[in-house]
Amino acid sequence: MPASSAPPQLASPAPKVTHHLLNYRLRLIARYLILTLGSLIVIIPIYLAIVNSLLVPSQLAHQPPPFFPTNPQWHTYPDAWSSGHLGVYIRNSLIQTIIIVSLQIVTSVLAAFAFAFLEFPFKRTLFVIFLSTLMIPFEVTVTQNLSTISSLGWMNTFQGLTVPFLATGFGVFLLRQAFLSLPPELREAALLDGYGNVRFLTRVVLPLSRPVIAALAVFSFLGSWNQYLWPLLVSGNDNKIRTVQIGLKQLAATQLDQINVSLAGTVIAFLPLIILLIIFQKQLVRSLTAGSVK
Amino acid sequence: MILTPKARRKNWGLAALFLFPSLFIFGVFTFYPFFENFRLAMFQTPPYPGLPSKYIGFSQYASILSSSEFMQSLLSTLFFVLLVVPTGLLLGLALAVAAHKALRGMAIFRVIFSSTVVTSVAVGALIFGTLMNPIVGFLPWLGINPNPPLLQSPTWALPSIAAMAIWQFLGLSFIVMLAGLQSLPDDVLEASRVDGAGAWTTFWRVTVPMLSPTIFFGLVVGTIYAFQTFGQIDILIGSQNASQLHVNVLLYYIYQSIQGTNPDPGQAAVLSIVLFVIILIFTLLQLRFVERRVHYAGK
Amino acid sequence: MATVSFQGTTKRFGDVTAVDALNLDVEDGEFLVLLGPSGCGKTTALRMVAGLEDVSEGIIAIDGNDVTGLEPQDRDVAMVFQSYALYPHLSVARNIEFPLRKRISSKEERQRLVLDVAKSLDLDEYLDRKPGQLSGGQRQRVALARAIVRQPAAFLMDEPLSNLDAKLRIQTRAEIVALQARLGTTTLYVTHDQVEAMTMGHRIAVMNDGILQQVATPSALYENPQNVFVARFVGNPGMNIVTGVVDSEARSIHLGGVDASPGFLHDDAYQFNGPLSLGFRPESVALSSTGLPGSVSLIERLGSEVHVVVTIETGEILTVRQAANEVIPSLGDSVHLAVTGKVLAFDAQTGERR
């Protein structure tokens, strides 16, 4: 601090204190200003979507568009639900997601347990092979997978939607790390107590790994619920199997004049996830940042 | 953990049993299609469906990679990635720094900033489609009416899609950066302040270097995310206009090769390999040039 | 009830020999302490008995049966871990019950056993709690209860007291001794703390660098250490060792070339000839007007007694144990030391007892 630059007056210490206080207040204001601006960036698009979902068609064309729905049209929501088949699509998405999430957890737990606790030949090589799947984006394999699924006769089926995603290198990696961080004495105590691998897994490892399994579940839920390219290719032509993401595209494409209904559909698809985010924030953060801190 | 020889043998069977489900899925749906790409890339798709495909070897790479359509797609992709990743990460970092301190109302701000992480591609596209709509969107509300509208302009279509991708990436970027900030040891930051460094110096000289593993992680994740952008283009632009609006990024180009009236698996295979190689190069470059300067604390 | 014996038992980790041809018999009902500095191989030896480590060479026998190739669960031993290894997601009752589930099918019988053991260790109030809600001492007792409940042939304890604070450690020490005496179960107990070893063990096996140094009762170990390592390691502070040349004929001891015989009053010191390491306990040496000259380099006041650390002219450091009411010199004072008590002679090269 350049205290020496203070004028040599009979000044009380008061000015310096206010100076610091001012500085602190200014910084606080700047901080909240940044936060508010950032919030606006995030919220304005969502807000506009909600507003537009509640407008009557005549208001939609009005210039400039209203920034507040004076006469909210709540019926757009049931309209989107029924005319856009959103109910069916959400059900399909739920089935698809539940299959993927639960079986991903099963395959990851088994493989991670093997890598963390079992001894077998080529363990390192196999682990590297598992990790290398993280380097191959699904998009790169999408062409061939499509012909595999179609030759299996799985187009427009839940098998076709889910089976390619039933294993995850990320999940194996995440769970292996968590299993390895359990105290090794627990494994040894269980061995002395007469508990073999399977019982050790079910009675000790699984109950103790609940938080990280929850993290994986949230991560994989988000991933499969929000899938777009694959469901578009596998289920795009069939109403009965179409997922909500593809349904939204149809809603947007077929009802251009009814932007309010299509946005109501968007909000219906979006709100549950926001609620999920608020509930499972901790688990989500944990899984999303699993690789960031060494 | 060392077991007696007997127990170790017993483990082999169990390990095989436990690894099999994952290995099977990976084999069929990751490794087989991945390597199949290299085979397919050697065959030219016949001009009419039903005819046998013809082996032409590596010349298929040459003809596709030298086409102007491919160059356009590659340039669009790179431009897109360069727009999205740095902007998204910087914005995420700025908001994370602002929301890092435990002040009043931070919990709400954190939920808001994280929220775009749960938006799906379709949700994001529809929300942004509205925002950029020439009649009901944000611009007319501000009294700006670009002609042609943003999403129909060859100049603005790609940056508009990028803006949407940044918006969607912001949630992930914020979460990663905030977690990184919160994992920093307070004592080092405090030591810097006690040593007489101001907030600004401390941030650039201490916080950012110590945050470098997180930033590096964000770069890799963001790059992969940006290369995967597909749905927004599919919903907001569509197949017919993607090429002329310069938004046919590589993934969309692949999609166009396998969809439509005359799918071209040979071309899709070549493009898939190119996409893989580019992502690999980006990741390795980041590993080489960024991680060298990355400071890993401890261990 | 069982004996445990190591017969030429060896453990190698790559090039490192952690336990080198260990021969040791633990008698039925005995409380045997494996004592040594960290890394001496004592924990590895214990883990080989448990079946948690492979044996590279030699065998382990329990009650005369070779168990070297058996699974841990088939050896009928119970282990108490340093970290207790309690299952954090299970209640105290379920933790204690855990080893019984594979052995006893009747649920009532299991619960009766758990309750009995819990009562005997004053744990019956805490049966519904999780380990995370217990104090360190209570957790330790749960770990003991889990070991006791299945009535194993032997207890294996790996530094079970090292996570407790000093006061609780002394109390628990006595409890474990009483418990073992009551149950009469053969116990192998690993520690690096020689006070723990001295107060708890029927016999103590001292190990260093993977090699068994000496097996003896606590008092025999203190009085008659077989080599310099044991002499220095056992006792607090350890034995004083000076190296010099003894001539028994001339009744002279030269330390660093200077005659130091006025400092050695006891006849023991002159039994052997040649270059020797002479050892004597801190209570066998006193400040005196004549003897070994040196200066006071440290004074440690422990309340009832005082340790005066003196650096003698050869640079060797000796400790004198004094009662607190004696005259205590000041730091830096020039003093003389006289060895009044028993002196042990060790080979100057090998460190072995002469």
What does the secondary structure layout of this molecule look like, with pairings?
The complex is a heterotrimer of chains A (294), B (299) and C (354).
Chain A: H1 14-53, H2 57-61, H3 76-83, H4 86-117, H5 123-132, H6 138-151, H7 158-162, H8 169-180, H9 184-192, H10 197-208, H11 210-225, H12 229-235, H13 244-254, H14 259-279, H15 281-288
Chain B: H1 5-40, E1 43-44, E2 54-55, H2 59-65, H3 68-100, H4 106-114, H5 121-131, H6 138-142, H7 157-183, H8 186-194, H9 199-210, H10 212-227, H11 231-236, H12 239-242, H13 250-258, H14 265-290
Antiparallel strand pairs in B: 1-2
Chain C: E1 4-13, E2 16-26, E3 31-35, H1 42-50, E4 57-62, E5 65-66, E6 77-80, H2 92-97, H3 107-120, H4 136-148, E7 154-158, H5 166-183, E8 186-191, H6 194-200, E9 203-208, E10 211-216, H7 218-223, H8 228-233, E11 240-247, E12 252-255, E13 258-259, E14 274-280, E15 285-288, E16 292-301, E17 305-312, E18 317-323, E19 334-339, E20 344-347
Parallel strand pairs in C: 3-8, 3-9, 6-7, 7-8
Antiparallel strand pairs in C: 1-2, 1-4, 4-5, 9-10, 11-12, 11-14, 12-13, 14-20, 15-19, 16-17, 16-19, 17-18
What does this structure look like?
The complex is a heterotrimer of chains A (294), B (299) and C (354). Chain A is 71% helix and 0% strand. By secondary structure, chain A is mainly α. With 299 residues, chain B is mainly alpha-helical. Helices cover 70% and strands 1% of the residues of chain B. Chain B has 14 helices and 2 strands. A two-stranded antiparallel sheet of chain B has the order 1-2. Chain B is globular and about 75 Å long. Residues 1-6 of chain B have low confidence and may be disordered. Chain C is of the alpha+beta class and 354 residues long. Chain C has a 6-stranded mixed β-sheet, sandwiched between helices. A 5-stranded antiparallel β-sheet of chain C has the order 13-12-11-14-20. A 5-stranded antiparallel β-sheet of chain C has the order 15-19-16-17-18, with no helix packed on it. Chain C is elongated. In chain C, 41% of the residues are buried. Chains A and B meet through helix 1, helix 4, helix 5, helix 6 and helix 9 of A and helix 1, helix 3, helix 4, helix 5 and helix 6 of B. Chain C: It holds the Pfam family ABC_tran. Chain C: One of its GO terms (cellular component) is ATP-binding cassette (ABC) transporter complex, substrate-binding subunit-containing. Chain C: Keywords: ATP-binding, Cell membrane, Membrane, Nucleotide-binding, Translocase, Transport.
